[in-house]
Specification:
Helices cover 23% and strands 32% of the residues. The protein has 230 residues and is α+β, with helices and mostly antiparallel strands. It has two domains: 99 residues, Alpha-Beta Plaits, CATH 3.30.70; 112 residues. The strands form two sheets. Strands 1, 2, 3, 4, 5, 8, 9, 10 and 11 form a nine-stranded mixed sheet that branches. Strands 6-7 form a two-stranded antiparallel ribbon. Strand 6 and strand 7 form a beta hairpin.
């Protein structure tokens, strides 16, 4: 039984790394006494895989992981048992059985929505700023790379949409994953460079609202029938 699970990583655990998050979920699965499937070899591991990593300091409202079980269990019981075994700040929202041959989350998820809590040093008109920013032919930033030469990245083709939730909360729909990845910190840096009254913000001002599969400009959840059936 392969389960695709939606969960939240909230403020109490915002500072744990991706690897620590995986370990925490593994420990929770063991405490919940789930019929876990393990990899073969000298050091067997729980068959668990997560979606694209969330930066340390950020929260994620709708994150995903896949978990392989040795036998079927009721979804509501799975959610209840696992929630009772996970620490405060990690909450299972829902889960769905998917075919064993389904493509991995890393392979299919290609879009994320980030909400950035903006900070300003003076008065701005959010609608005018967003309209101007969206109309630019290029949105270039310098991407620093460890042990490699820095390179200039054009975010524009990977920046799909900007919505103003309220004057100080802007939602950015962007590409994520191996085919093209936008870091929300780079969006902020591009805005700060372009507009004098926009301030740099810490990662705690950014939350990932959701992870999606984008097809023909339509966003689907990773366990939508159109996705897992394809």
């Amino acid at each position: 039984m392969l389960l695709r699970t939606k969960f939240s990583k909230l403020s109490p655990v915002r500072y744990i790394s991706h690897l620590e998050l995986m370990d925490t979920i593994r420990h929770g699965c063991r405490r919940a006494k789930l019929p876990l499937a393990f990899s073969e070899g000298y050091n067997p591991r729980i068959k668990l895989s997560l979606c694209q990593p969330l930066s340390v300091g950020m929260i994620g409202l709708n994150e995903y992981f896949d978990l392989k079980l040795m036998k079927d269990i009721k979804i509501d019981q799975y959610i209840k048992n696992l929630n009772s075994s996970l620490p405060v700040g990690i909450k299972i929202i829902t889960a769905q059985k998917i075919p064993d041959n389904s493509k991995s989350l890393q392979a299919i998820v290609n879009t994320a929505i980030y909400r950035i809590k903006m900070e300003f040093s003076g008065n701005i008109n959010p609608k005018d700023v967003v309209a101007d920013f969206s109309s630019r032919g290029k949105v270039e930033v310098v991407r620093k790379r460890r042990n490699k030469k820095n390179r200039i990245v054009n975010l524009k083709p990977m920046l799909y949409n900007i919505d103003i939730n309220n004057p100080r909360e802007w939602d950015f729909t962007v590409s994520t994953g191996s085919s093209g990845n936008v870091r929300p910190s780079e969006i902020v840096r591009a805005l700060v460079t372009r507009y004098d009254n926009i301030e740099q913000v810490p990662l705690i001002n950014i939350e990932r609202r959701g992870m999606f599969v984008r097809r023909d400009k339509i966003l689907f959840e990773p366990f939508a029938s159109k996705i897992i059936g394809s």
